[in-house]
Amino acid sequence: MIKIVLVRHGQSEYNEQNRFTGWTDVDLTERGKEEARKAGAILRQNKFVFDIACTSVLKRAIRTLWIMQDEMGLLWIPTDKTWRLNERHYGALQGLNKEETARKYGEEQVHLWRRSVSVRPPALDKSDPRYEGTDPKYKAIADRVPVTENLDDTEERVLAYWREKVEPSLHENRRVLLVAHGNTIRALVRYLDDIPGDGIATLNIPTGTPLVYELDDDLKPIRHYYLEEDERKVHSDAEAAAGAPDVRSE
Ligand SMILES: O=C(O)[C@@H](CO)OP(=O)(O)O
């Protein structure tokens, strides 16, 4: 049985302030750190062990992974950090308050910017101080740093990483822990579960909650479930298949 565990980072400062985040490199809140600790603890209690970990180059995901690894006694495992697992780029919306933006542009427009797979938020101007293209962290991709993305754009780069790094590891029986972001995980779920069109629009990924995918030898999903600390509640596949949105994320 091949398994991979996907975890969205714990609550971030911008999650708490209800701001569009994207590639903005904000840290975890105290609650977010506690969520990460609990995610590591529930995995340890359920005897999950990992051979490798992968995450984005954004500190809210990296710190979540560190806290989880510490909790599991796995700080030593090889870790790959890649911009391809960064959150979807939110363009010129990055840093703005979501509620204020909805008042200004309307709920419908903001919903499209947030959940349409094809609509891109307004692009960030390259002269804007928020533009990440000059950040040394992105030196290797300076000519490709996005100024906005829709979910399709995000999925393309996430899948490039999945095919190049994750699939070969899984085929070699390495147990992979992937700590990333709401929309990079939504893109992966859309691909793994072959969700057509805008079907992913109602699915939200909760912060700091391990999502376990069991895969067959062709890496096709057999089932998936969340591991939760409280009652170690396992969300039923029926619930997931019905597209029940998990709205505990923010
Ligand atoms: O702000 C963001 O980058 C994401 C995740 O927090 O928000 P949304 O839920 O709108 O995709």
From TrEMBL:
GO terms for biological process: gluconeogenesis; glycolytic process. Pathway: Carbohydrate degradation; glycolysis; pyruvate from D-glyceraldehyde 3-phosphate: step 3/5. Keywords: Gluconeogenesis, Glycolysis, Isomerase. Its EC number is 5.4.2.11. One of its GO terms (molecular function) is phosphoglycerate mutase activity. The record marks H181 as: Transition state stabilizer. Coiled coil: none annotated. It comes from the Bacteria. Substrate binds at residues 8-15, 21-22, 60, 87-90, 98, 114-115, 182-183. InterPro entries: His_Pase_superF_clade-1, His_PPase_superfam, PG/BPGM_mutase_AS, Phosphogly_mut1. It catalyses: (2R)-2-phosphoglycerate = (2R)-3-phosphoglycerate. SMART domains: PGAM. Catalyzes the interconversion of 2-phosphoglycerate and 3-phosphoglycerate. Belongs to the phosphoglycerate mutase family. BPG-dependent PGAM subfamily. This is 2,3-bisphosphoglycerate-dependent phosphoglycerate mutase. It comes from Paenibacillus albicereus. The lineage of its organism: Bacteria, Bacillati, Bacillota, Bacilli, Bacillales.
